[in-house]
Design a protein that fits this description.
Elements (H helix, E strand, L loop, with lengths): L3 H7 L11 E6 L3 E7 L19 H20 L7 E13 L8 E12 L2 E10 L2 E14 L2
Antiparallel strand pairs: 1-2, 2-4, 3-6, 4-5, 5-6
Length: about 150
């Protein structure tokens, strides 16, 4: 539904911090499903951990937040510009259920729970195959830079 070229137009993140490769499904104002192909070439694997590479949990949360941003921008019908920044406002109930390793495909389902006063709240789940790797409630907000 959205390839890497379209994602690059929406998100300001770039290598090595862009953590979304493709959007598989998008239901405006409701939900989004996207994926991240996890490869041994990820720069964080050199130190996390050299003997057993595992994707850091905070980067799974960041990947889900980037997917949430794509849903937020689509919901609002906007494309962010250089003066718009999308920030984390909070993370609740984060749970890590299984390690994510090189060769895994992280599939993220994010649903918009509510949008009020510029604060978005999402329910997010990341899976590898059918197994939950990470889940959390994410709060995000957009700010215009001066």
């Amino acid at each position: 539904m959205m390839d890497i070229h379209q994602i690059l137009k929406q998100l300001p993140h770039r290598f090595p911090f862009l953590l979304v490769d493709r959007v598989l499904e998008l239901e405006k104002g409701v939900r989004i499903k996207a994926l991240k192909n996890v490869t041994i070439n990820e720069p964080f694997f050199t130190g996390h951990f050299p003997h057993r590479p595992v994707m850091p949990g905070v980067l799974m949360l960041e990947a889900m937040a980037q997917v949430a941003a794509l849903l937020a921008f689509d919901t609002l019908g906007t494309t962010p510009d250089d003066k718009t920044v999308y920030y984390f406002a909070g993370i609740d109930g984060a749970r890590f259920k299984r390690p994510v390793e090189p060769g895994d495909q992280l599939v993220m389902d994010v649903a918009l729970d509510r949008m009020k006063s510029g604060i978005f709240k999402f329910k997010a789940v990341a899976r590898v195959d059918a197994h939950i790797a990470c889940e959390a409630e994410l709060m995000c907000t957009m700010r215009t830079l001066p």
